[in-house]
């Protein structure tokens, strides 16, 4: 039980702060927080003995990317440097927390708060810190799986890492924003980037909007009270979703083949004659094909999503609309559509973001082809598949990192704006 006492009235928070700055844990010892102070001291001693030299070397490598060609491996130094940077940030955060904690504890003691005993300290620590301890493994995993690759990719965009500047034979160098300037000034890069970006936006908007529109249309039809055998119809419409996407894409790739595909052989040629449509050799037809395939792949999920939402709409609303003389279109516009959007807007936004980076269908259908003259991207390549080619086919890692960074900014900006605008994140009464 805390109570005021004159014993610590001269306790000085400034002394605790200065001691914690000099060496982590000393301020806690001054505050008679012996367990916490000991932990901080052990951490700093361990850092000074085992990590200081490694972090210094890592930060040196991050700054220079090596100085001796054939000996220093620039990419390994970059990886080690990023890890050192992350470790430095974590250690600085702990150091700052140590100083703040010591000062706050000293202020409380000066005001009359009495430090708890060892047993009570352990109990209090368990009660307050247990949730944080349980989240530490997940935090560490996120750091190495998400944050580390993200930082590495961003930094790679500011280097000249490509096929002709590959370690260990050559050193990679920091070149600032030269890659970004090259992307918008060098003709082949500029034209390819604009073309691929435009197609990526068209592909995302058209394919996603079509699958949403068809899913909503079919959900409205099946939800109509006049329709019989609803369960059977729903099962049939969801079947395309049950088949693995890569299997469906490969089947469609064979069906759309210019020479032996069943689309040309059994449908197009018997109807209009000639040699059929060049689905895989002409960009416009290849793009049309993958939009249709993505619509087929995507509408079952939207259909299932909208079906559940439509069943949750109260029938009283429609009965009230009937009393007021509302038409079918008016009931859809003022009741059905707003309710569906309110309930599903976040998931629909995710559909757009997912298709923006939908690598599978582009690569599995025709590997981003067909080739386009005066371009280092194929006719159906979107940004993500172009990045793949730059990375694994032409080894232009730095430019791939630049495009990846631009993609991330586009998706993040779009998603952030849409999430802020949607009413799903506002009070339901504002609908």
Automatic annotation (TrEMBL):
Any one cellular component term from GO for this entry? maltose transport complex
What's the short name of a Pfam family annotated to this entry?
A: BPD_transp_1
Instruction: List the SUPFAM superfamilies.
Output: MalF N-terminal region-like, MetI-like
Among PROSITE patterns, the record links this protein to: ABC_TM1 (PS50928)
Q: At the top level of its lineage, which domain of life is listed?
A: Bacteria
InterPro entries, per database record: MetI-like, MetI-like_sf
Q: Where is the ABC transmembrane type-1 domain?
A: 197-418
GO process terms (BP): maltodextrin transmembrane transport
Task of the protein: Part of the ABC transporter complex MalEFGK involved in maltose/maltodextrin import. Probably responsible for the translocation of the substrate across the membrane.
* Identification of the protein by name: Maltose/maltodextrin transport system permease protein
Provide the species name: Gracilibacillus ureilyticus
């Amino acid at each position: 039980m805390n109570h005021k006492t004159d014993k610590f009235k001269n306790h000085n928070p400034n002394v605790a702060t200065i001691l914690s700055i000099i060496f982590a844990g000393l301020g806690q010892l001054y505050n008679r927080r012996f367990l916490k102070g000991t932990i901080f001291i052990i951490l700093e001693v361990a850092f000074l003995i085992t990590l200081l030299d490694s972090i210094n070397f890592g930060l040196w490598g991050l700054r220079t990317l090596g100085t001796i060609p054939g000996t220093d491996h620039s990419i390994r130094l970059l990886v080690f440097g990023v890890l050192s940077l992350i470790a430095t940030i974590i250690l600085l955060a702990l150091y700052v927390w140590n100083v703040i904690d010591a000062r706050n504890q000293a202020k409380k003691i000066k005001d009359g708060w009495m430090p708890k005993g060892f047993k009570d300290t352990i109990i209090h620590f368990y009660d307050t810190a247990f949730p944080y301890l349980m989240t530490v493994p997940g935090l560490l995993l996120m750091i190495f799986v998400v944050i580390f690759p993200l930082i590495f990719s961003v930094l790679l965009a500011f280097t000249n890492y490509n096929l002709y500047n590959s370690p260990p034979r050559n050193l990679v160098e920091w070149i600032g924003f030269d890659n970004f300037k090259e992307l918008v000034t060098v003709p082949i890069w500029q034209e390819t980037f604009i073309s691929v970006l435009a197609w990526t936006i068209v592909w995302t908007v058209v394919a996603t909007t079509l699958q949403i529109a068809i899913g909503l249309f079919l959900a409205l039809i099946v939800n109509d009270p006049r329709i019989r055998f609803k369960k059977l119809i729903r099962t049939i419409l969801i079947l395309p979703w049950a088949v693995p996407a890569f299997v469906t894409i490969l089947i469609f790739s064979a069906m759309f083949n210019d020479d032996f595909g069943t689309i040309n052989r059994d449908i197009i040629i018997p109807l209009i004659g000639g040699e059929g449509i060049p689905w895989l050799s002409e960009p416009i037809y290849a793009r049309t094909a993958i939009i249709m395939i993505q619509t087929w792949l995507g509408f079952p999920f939207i259909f299932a999503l909208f079906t559940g939402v439509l069943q949750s709409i109260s029938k009283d609303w429609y009965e009230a609309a009937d009393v007021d003389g509302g038409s079918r279109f008016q009931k859809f516009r003022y009741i059905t559509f707003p309710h569906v959007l309110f309930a599903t807007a976040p998931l629909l936004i995710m559909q757009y973001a997912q298709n923006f980076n939908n690598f599978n269908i582009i690569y599995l259908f025709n590997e981003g082809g067909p080739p386009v003259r005066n371009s280092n991207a194929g006719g159906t390549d979107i940004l993500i598949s172009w990045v793949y080619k730059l990375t694994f086919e032409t080894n232009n890692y730095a430019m791939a990192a630049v495009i990846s960074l631009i993609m991330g900014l586009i998706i993040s900006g779009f998603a952030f704006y849409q999430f802020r605008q949607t009413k799903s994140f506002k009070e339901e009464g504002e609908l």
